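Re: the 256-residue chain
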Amino acid sequence: MYPGETGRDLNADPPGWSKPMHSQDLAENRKGVAMNLQTFFIVCVAAIGGAACAAEPQVAGQASGEGLVAVRSSNLDEVTLRPNADLSAYRKVLIDPVRAEVRSDWQKNLNYTRNVSRWVGPEDAKRMAADAAADLESAIAQTYKARGYEIAAAPAPGVLRLTASIADLYVNSPDRYSAWTVKTFTRDAGQATLVLEARDALTGTLLARVVHHGIAREISRINPASDVSNRFWFETLFKRWTADCIAEFEAGRNRP
């Protein structure tokens, strides 16, 4: 016994010494760790599930509030239809002027990658939006005509009113004249979010809504880009999208 250790239990373990754990203690410890991991896993799954539910598109909630029901589509991102509405009964369409908006960061992003002499400005954005709006309006009319529909000039019985819009229009490589000879190559011409709403022209009842994020010319190789090629590939996107919308509208009544 050392000085100052009067009364110390001689059978006690020295300071800092821990007893070795027996097999039973180890098993219980491992069991506790496993239960904690299981609890942690369940909490994570619940949190992810809750976040996923909270992140559902607001469009779906809006559509349900307007009496529309979401249906599955193999070609379009979001399709909502009014139950029991027979859109195939409409053989005339009234097409509203199309609205188009360029994505807010388009000018900043494009100029960051270009020489000052090829920068784009607000006027370029307005020109692109106007061109896209005119091209989509024309594509809708042409595609509906090709499917046997008549283009109406005013609301009337049996007329379906179509209101289309373009959001977040992004053209990857618009032409910009420069003193330097520049050739630009891209994989696709750009992208946009396309929205189409169909209403009864007389009552104004909303019958269908389509929201789709489209890419103009998604191919595997790189190709030269110009304003001419950009408009061509966006027109191709618009016609394909309109044809897909018509197919969904005509099949709507036959859905389960």
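Residues 23-54 form the longest helix (32 residues).
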